[in-house]
Amino acid sequence: MSDPDGIPWLTDPQRDFLAHLTVLTIQPQLKPARSYERVSDALGELAESGQVTLRADDENVWVFICGRWIVHAARDWLEYMTPRWAGAGSN
Fold first, then answer.
1. What is the pTM of this model?
2. Do residues 62 and 71 make contact, with C-beta atoms less than 8 angstroms apart?
3. Counted domains in the chain
4. Does 54 reside within a domain?
5. How far apart are CA 59 and CA 81, in angstroms?
6. Helix, strand or coil, per DSSP, at residue 3
7. Residue-wise over 52-79: b if at least 16 C-beta within 10 A, else e?
């Protein structure tokens, strides 16, 4: 398990699930529509340039893009849902 964002309790699968949720949040808002892969790639580029950040407290985690809150997840929900998402074959 890595800790690139200073959130020691957040596992790599949970980070992946948050990335997935972020794509699903942004994708339907785009006109014209963009593929899941295209949105994911664009978010990856933003993350590499430091424009995607995670913030957390003991009970919650938030995904911010360019300083704007995009996704929120309660820690207990994230712990419950991540293995179910991963077990379903992810996407």
1. 0.86
2. yes
3. 1
4. yes
5. 15
6. coil
7. bebebeeeebebebeeeebbebebeebe
Q: Which residue has the tokens 């995009």?
A: 70
| Identity of residue 80 | Y
**CA-angle at 60, arms to 57 and 63, nearest 5°:** 100
Residue 16, in any domain of the structure? yes
Domain that holds residue 58: 12-85
| Torsion of the alpha carbons at 37, 5, 89 and 38, rounded to the nearest 10 | 0
Q: Amino acid identity of 10?
A: L
Digit-coded pLDDT (tens) for 48-73: 999 999 999 989 999 999 999 999 99
Residue 71 counted as domain residue:
yes
- Which of helix, strand or coil describes residue 33? coil
Q: What is the pLDDT of residue 1?
A: 43
